[in-house]
Amino acid sequence: MADLRVLLIGATGVFGSRLAELAVREHGLALTLAARDERKLAALSARLGGLPVRALDRDRLSAADLAGFDVVVDAAGPFQASAPTVIAAAIAAGIHYLDLADGRAFIAAIGDHDAAARAAGISITSGASSIPALSHAVIDDLTAGWRAIDEIRIGIFPGNRAPRGLSVVQAILSYVGHPVRVWRGGQWVDVPGWGQTHRWRIPGIGARWASVCDTPEQDLLVARYRPRASAEFFAGMELSILHLGLAALALPVRRGWIGSLRPAARPLLAIARLLLPFGSDRGAMGVIVRGEDRQGRPVDARWTLRATGNRGPYVPTLAALAMLRRFRDGRAPEPGARACTGMLTLADFAADFAALEITTMQDMPAFP
């Protein structure tokens, strides 16, 4: 069989470069790197053995830019403010599309492209990342055979020494201080973005700060699992000065004094980079669920991922890598447009976790 021809947009970013590092080792994948900055592209290509490159602006992409490829992967961002330009180009070019999107509105609107994708005979898959692809694979595994789910809590906690990019910071700042719609108490309520700050205990690491984030998970968890009480997503920074400082900066937005913190992304990123030597290189992800087992008895379950040595930023790329293997092996999703939920199982991640020395554990705690 011919190699799967893959165009990776955003290849020089924090997540795109890590996906490229992993994908280049896969047999049967012919990878082309794409980004705006030609200098960074050349450096990445040289580091990965001379891969072909394309200087592209994802906001001005056309079908002609995708000619000759089988799959386009969008690892750029931030998706919170993105137009579906790459999706439209993929449909027009008749090639499959995959992204690492974490924008709530972006993924909520993915079904708008379903009819066009079906007509073109291609699949449009959004959110092939830690959420919802990995998180839902975890929940499916934890709750297999359960009669009902009451509560779901998901948290992501990068180590402070993990590299961070401008698009990630812009994505966070886009919702800080703004109302975030969450499923709590069996109903939809608004809470402040980066509010509800509390401590989250991570087995093997300790307690980290956690605050509410605006992600596609709030909608997708409710739609897929029908939790009777709550479905919440949190994230946290390791250093208290950064986490609590951002919570304090949210107050002017909450009170309407300023419209958004997003214009401050570059200076805040500079401050965060000054503090990179502090903290640790240990990141984590946690999933906690509560419900009823097949006999109707109350049951709790928790899954924890721990990544040391700054391997945490590889985790958001593993679902996309698993999906590329499916395309390569002739197991592409059916034509249509959908979020990447229910497509992968934990088994699809196991070998990559082992290769990256990322550990996971499962237990049954008292629900916090």
Topology record:
Layout: E1 4-9, H1 14-23, E2 29-35, H2 38-47, E3 53-55, E4 71-74, H3 85-93, E5 96-99, H4 104-108, H5 114-120, E6 123-126, H6 130-142, E7 148-157, H7 166-173, E8 179-184, E9 187-192, E10 198-202, E11 206-212, H8 217-225, E12 230-235, H9 240-254, H10 265-274, E13 283-292, E14 298-307, H11 318-328, E15 336-339, H12 347-355, E16 359-363
Parallel strand pairs: 1-2, 1-4, 2-3, 4-5, 5-6, 6-15, 7-12
Antiparallel strand pairs: 7-13, 8-9, 10-11, 11-12, 13-14, 14-16
- The strand count comes to 16
Query: Secondary-structure element sequence?
Result: EHEHEEHEHHEHEHEEEEHEHHEEHEHE
The overall pLDDT average reads 94
Taking pLDDT < 50 over at least 5 consecutive residues as the criterion, the unreliable ranges are: none
- Describe the oligomeric state of these chains in a short phrase: single chain
Report how far apart the termini are.
51 Å
Residues in helices, as a percent range:
25-40%
Account of the protein in words:
The chain is an alpha/beta fold and 368 residues long. It is 32% helix and 26% strand. It has twelve helices and 16 strands. It has helices at 14-23, 38-47, 85-93, 104-108, 114-120, 130-142, 166-173, 217-225, 240-254, 265-274, 318-328, 347-355; strands at residues 4-9, 29-35, 53-55, 71-74, 96-99, 123-126, 148-157, 179-184, 187-192, 198-202, 206-212, 230-235, 283-292, 298-307, 336-339, 359-363. It has a seven-stranded parallel sheet, with helices on both faces. A seven-stranded mixed sheet has the order 10-11-12-7-13-14-16. Helix 7 (166-173) packs across helix 10 (265-274). The longest helix is centred in the last third of the chain and has 15 residues, at 240-254. It is globular. The N and C termini lie far apart (51 Å). The mean pLDDT is 94.
